[in-house]
Write a structure and sequence with these properties.
219 residues; OB fold (Dihydrolipoamide Acetyltransferase, E2P); 2 domains; 8-stranded mixed sheet; globular
Length: 219
């Protein structure tokens, strides 16, 4: 069988070009994924101090925990949460990772915090020292954090020795801020797309909403 050498060479060139395009596209995609992943990480650093529910690093960065909320000063276990957090992060430096939403302003960052390979956000929730607060851009660890909170409630860890979730009591949820309120609360979002009706604090917690610090719907 006689093969047309010119036709064969032309086909080889076409196949090689197609293969090259596939490999180039794959490299671009892999490179893009790696770049996106790199943007979600940042060097951590040594902790200067813990201030309320934030960590201040020695390089000046102010870190707020993503997807959770520590108790406010007037809420149960606020002091315990702060002292425990100081113990967990002051011995070693911390590492940071980010979700889709990570910048609040120029000097405050929303981050997932790690110390000695321990996921501090989850550890606080599991110890009953933080509420889950899942905003739209901070849902990367939604399943992990909600599971930790459910177990903390069941085991009555930390603040859950004092707080009890209810059903059948109406509350108003703010989906944008991941917060729930009493119906009469002045801080509720009002008639907006972000507001939803809830049938109790148990439903709010299962949705990843934290109680409002002003009207205190868990009291």
């Amino acid at each position: 069988m006689k093969v047309d050498s010119r036709s064969f060479k032309k086909k080889c060139v076409v196949v090689a070009a197609a293969l090259g395009a596939v490999l180039t596209a794959s490299s671009v995609l892999i490179g893009t994924d790696a770049a996106n992943e790199d943007q979600r990480r940042a060097p951590g650093g040594e902790v200067r101090r813990v201030s309320g529910d934030r960590i201040k690093l020695k390089d000046g960065r102010d870190i707020e925990f993503a997807a959770i909320r520590l108790p406010f000063e007037h809420e149960p276990y606020a002091d315990k949460a702060r002292h425990t957090l100081e113990k967990w992060v002051n011995d070693e430096g911390v590492r940071l990772a980010f979700d889709d939403e990570w910048g609040i302003n120029d000097d405050r960052l929303l981050a997932y915090v790690y110390a000695n390979d321990t996921f501090i956000n989850e550890r606080l929730v599991r110890a009953g020292l933080a509420f889950v607060k899942l905003r739209a851009g901070n849902r990367k660890y939604e399943a992990v954090l909600l599971k930790a909170q459910a177990e903390a409630r069941e085991e009555r860890n930390g603040m859950w020795t004092l707080l009890k979730a209810t059903s059948g009591v109406p509350f108003v949820g703010d989906e944008e801020r991941a917060t729930f309120h009493r119906p009469e609360c002045a801080k509720r979002p009002g008639e907006s797309k972000a507001e939803i009706q809830l049938k109790g604090s148990a439903e709010a917690l299962e949705r990843g909403m934290a109680p409002c610090g002003k009207c205190r719907p868990m009291d």
